[in-house]
Amino acid sequence: MKLWQSRKQRRTEPEAEPSPAPQHKQSRFSHLGIRWRLVGSFAMFVALLLMLLWLLQIVFLESFYKSIKTSSIKNTAEEVAASINDENFYTEVNRLTRQDLICVHVIREDGTPVLTSGNQPSCILHMLLTDQAALLFRQAQENGGTVLENYQLLELSPAMQGKTTVQTASTEQLLYGILTTRGEGDTAEPVMVMVDATITPINTTVETLRAQLVIITVIMTAFSILLVLLLSAMISRPITRITESAKQLATGDYGTQFTGGTYREVTELADTLNYASRELSKVERLRQEFIANVSHDLRTPLTMITGYAEVMRDLPGENTPENVQIIIDEARRLTDLVNDLLDLSRLQSGAQTPEPEPLNLTKMIRGIMGRYAKLVLHDGYTITLEASGDAMVMADRLRMTQVLYNLINNAINYAGADRAVLVRQTIENNSVKVEVIDHGEGIPAESLPYVWDRYYKVDKNHRRSTVGAGLGLSIVKGVLEAHGAEYGVASTLGEGSDFWFRLPLLPPDAALTAESEENHFDFS
User: Fold this and answer.
1) Gap between the Cα atoms of 257 and 245, Å rounded
2) Which tens digits make up the pLDDT trace of 426-481?
3) C-beta of residue 174 within 8 angstroms of C-beta of residue 196
4) How many other CB atoms are found less than 10 A from the CB of residue 97?
5) Are residues 106 and 192 in contact, defined by beta-carbon separation less than 8 angstroms?
6) In sequence order, what are the residues at sequence separation of 6 or more whose Cβ sits closer than 8 angstroms to the Cβ of residue 77?
7) pTM, whole model, 2 decimals?
8) How far apart are the C-alpha atoms of 155 and 161, rounded to whole Å?
């Protein structure tokens, strides 16, 4: 008892803390490559196939043989019973006995024979006595019209010495009987069709099949190993190459090329990764240009602030309001740049959502254009508004102001020699479309899809913007998408660009109410 307890304790002690062994085993299998997984799967398939072949051809061969033989005897007996009143009955019975190597007897209820056909060796029907045949007839009547019997016959031969006999072989006989009626009318009588067949021993056949299956198993195993190694190499080799190229791509080597194989899926994967590599290289290049441009925009006001501050500190008489104003202006420019970066980051992360309210878009555009009066007066710019009427929309006032400022600033930065900017507002199909048009150098057609990207810059040579911080179009895109607005750009080289967006109008009743509330707010 103590020994059993100590063993039990030894078994249960490690269970106090879960053993990591199963996890390691699972981890090893989970890290198997596609090549060895394919080898294992194909090996299991071949093993199951060979096992099924062994079961069907060796283990269950005798059962299948007896089942098929029994079914054949029953079909023959039913066929004979169905044609017992035909004119060619005797001819058909003789044909069946020669074809299927069987014996057919037709007996009356008292066991006397009506027909005997077939002369097969060891036929049990030739050995039956009349009483035995009558007994089988009665069994068929009790069993619903059929009887099936199995007999084992022992073949005896004299011994080499003396008069004793010894068993030399045994034969299995299968007998099947079915009741039917012979004749018609008053001459009709019940009879039973009996069919006898020999169940041939299949021991020799099984031994032959076993020897053949051993050879087939060896050949199939060797062939399967070679085939699966070849297939696994063909499948895994291109995937391995793609994996190595992906590792190079992860290190920043965007020039790496992904090569496919002979399979469509692998080729499509390689093409997709090549496309991703090209796009990543574009993004990386644009990111570097963006950092360079932003660094320049940050360094310029910082340099001017530092320079004017040092001049005011070191030189007497330079502490003038003009120098102080320059420092203030450059500090504001620096603040605008930082705010633009923060706004762009919030928009792209979804942290900044619009707060729509009824808004007179036309009135807001007029107010914004009034703030450019100093620029128009001093630098010779012409900013014109074309509007067919006031448009009321649901939008975030602050964000839409940001959109218009950035679009107008962009048009001013790239205005042509005429320094003219046109803001056009048109109302159509229950929506308002706002366009900001300049007559500058324009944008190439291949660059139009990218002008809204924050890393993209059509003019690769950085220049200091007249107004704004250089991130305006990316902010415009984020705000308009947050409002669910349509937007786009049309441009022709040498003729200028047309940036536009479209918002749905408020219904007339709601627009009238909102307009009255806004006027009341302005009055008060």
Assistant:
1) 7
2) 998 889 999 999 999 898 888 888 888 765 555 554 444 444 445 778 888 888 99
3) yes
4) 21
5) yes
6) 176, 177, 178, 193, 194, 195
7) 0.45
8) 18
